[in-house]
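Priority: low. Protein: ATP-dependent 6-phosphofructokinase. Input follows.
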Amino acid sequence: MKKIGVLTSGGDAPGMNAAIRAVVRKSIYHGIEIYGIKNGFQGLIDGYIEKMNTGSVGDIIQRGGTILHSARSEEFKYDEGQQKGIEQMKKHGIEGLIVIGGDGSFRGAQKLTEKGYPCIGIPGTIDNDIAGTDFTIGFDTALNTVIEAIDKIRDTASSHERTFIIEVMGRDAGDLALWAGLADGAESILIPEKKDEFEEVIDRLKRGQERGKKHSIIILAEGVGDAFDYADKIKEKADLETRVTVLGHIQRGGSPSAADRVLASRLGAQAVELLLSDEAGKMAGIQNNKLVRHNIADVLEEKHTIDFNMYQLSKELSI
Ligand code: F6P
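Result:
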């Protein structure tokens, strides 16, 4: 292979820039030409393709977001869009592609690989919801952003003796809520993987009241339901004044943590190695702090799950 491409796709995540930097520099190290594709798969269809060099990725390792920009492309979900993408790459002589993103992005990479166009996936999403890797790029930074916010909310919750629901991202995955809840000693954690726990939350709040507990923090993953509805239910069932904070997209921004920069650098470099070793259709991941590779098809089929032992622990520690 003499020319390869890289793109970021789906929701952005802190550390994507560090991954792009590693892909670009590792390619140049191997004497390979490297092309950046802007705006994800949509940019590929539209031909937003530019040659990159060492300088293109200078001074970006510490920056959040993605210099290649990102998008969710409807057109690329279909055969016609994928063919257009392949045509663009052929036009530029690009022989393989590295895709940094979450499961939706991996579906696109898998489709291209099945059409004979080699792709490698790098897991980049704050959701940490990709099978075959212990961590995705961006999760650690987002977690620290959430923790910082909860610490602040805890101060005012304590002063005013209030219950707070803090909504964090995670449509289908509860990792961010679970890790944040455990790290911040939240009284309750509501996650999509355990949707029927609300009555238990009410019981815990009531038990807390009986013990004279004055404030509580409940972490809710967005996929569970509307935080304001839950606040109303708490008022109704436990007679507790409850405030809601929705953290929103603040969780996706910011300078990546050291852990995310290191992870992104390792996975970015490994992705180039995989592409050059003809390991088409693989994802570069990390398990037990060792670099691993898995078929993207298996990763998509397997589905990520939360650590239920951790979930149980969070309950045991917030009795
Ligand atoms: O990046 C993943 C994610 O953060 C999900 O947790 C969330 O539901 C979604 O993206 C929201 O993304 P957007 O607002 O960009 O559609």
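The CA atoms of residues 102 and 147 lie 23 Å apart. The pocket of 6-O-phosphono-beta-D-fructofuranose is lined by residues 11, 125-127, 169-171, 222, 252 (CB under 6 Å).
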